[in-house]
Structures are given as structure tokens and as C-alpha cells.
Known about the structure:
This protein has helices at residues 11-26, 32-39, 70-77, 133-140, 150-166, 184-190, 201-215; strands spanning 48-55, 58-65, 96-99, 102-105, 118-120. With 216 residues, it is α+β, with helices and mostly antiparallel strands. A five-stranded mixed beta sheet has the order 2-1-5-3-4, with helices on both faces.
Amino acid sequence: MAPPIEFEICRRTLLVGTAVSAAAAAAGLTGPANAQTARNGLPVGPQRMSVSLKINGAQRTLELDNRTTLLDALRETMQLTGTKKGCDHGQCGACTLTVNGRRVNSCLSLAVMHEGDEVTTIEGIGTPGDLDPMQAAFVEHDGFQCGYCTPGQICSAKAVIEEIRAGIPSHVTGDLTVPIKVTDEEIRERMSGNICRCGAYSNILAAITQVAEERS
């Protein structure tokens, strides 16, 4: 057996080597896939494509970077800034809107994934002169303080009532064999993905309950 080779890696050498490797990877200089792409004359990196969406009832076609989230497409390209960017990790619910009637955290969804889909944001729910019943209930019950989370809360709240009416189970109901009722527990569970940092939860619950009872 050959004798062990004595060697020593100093901190400076390790850091320099790591930095060089990272720079090469970022530049797309490593890996057979990137090499093959370069040889074929294809672009390396992000590309753009066209996506057609129905946004608040209006058909729109957008030219977007493939990496653009639905949230950024709405805010930056469409200037529909009612949908808020909170955590940008799908944890706070400030960016909640509906796609084909289902709730979506728009910060986690790429715009190009929604070709042909129908998107409804807070701008498509009501106007200052003609509030949606849920918006009016939030005002009546003071269901907001700073208001940053309110668009997502309202979009989510409207969807929650539809989910309950459609018999879609939650963690509380468990399965479709259990009758789904509009209870405080049920609403709190379904709204748990929407965080209000001001703590207006009891008022939000009162607003949702009022609309649910009016529609029952």
C-alpha cells in the first residue's frame, strides 16, 4: 500500500477555489448541458414568452420573462398594485387572488403557467362607489388596521364562502362525508393562510360570518 500523501489546504486557497467555481457556474461555463446549448447556438439563461390571461374580465396578452411570478406580472406589468407583496414566500397570504375561482398565492405561481386562465384580483371585486358585500362588511366591522393584508384577506374570504357552499373539505371537516357548516372554527381554519400583523382577526371573522349568513 502506498504511503499516505501529506497535504494541507489553507483557508485562503479554499475560499479562492470556491469563488472561482461559483463564478464559472454563474457564467454558465460549467456542465455538459450549458456546453451543448452554447454549441447549438441557443441562448443561455432566461427567455421570454407570450402569455394570454383574462384579468378581471378583460383579455390581456403579456410578453414576460419566463421567471416572472403572477404577482410581479400584475404589479409591475399591469400596474394592478392592489395585490400586495408581503413575504414573497407564500407564508403571509397578502398576495392571495383567485385563478379560475380557486385561491392562489400569486407570489409562488409563475405567470406563464396560467395561459388561458381567468384571474380575479381585488380590483375586479368592487369599486369605491359600488363595494362588494365582503368589502362593505370589512368596513362595517373594522376588519383592517394598516390595510396591507386586506386585499388578500378579502379575496380569500370570498373564496372561503364559495368553498364551504361547494362542500370542499378543509382540515376541520376532514372529508366530504361530514356536513360542512359556517362555524368560527371552520372559517378560522380556512383563513389561516392569511396573516394580519395588526391582529384584526376577530373583526375579520365577524365580517366573513355576516356575509356568509346573508348568503345562506
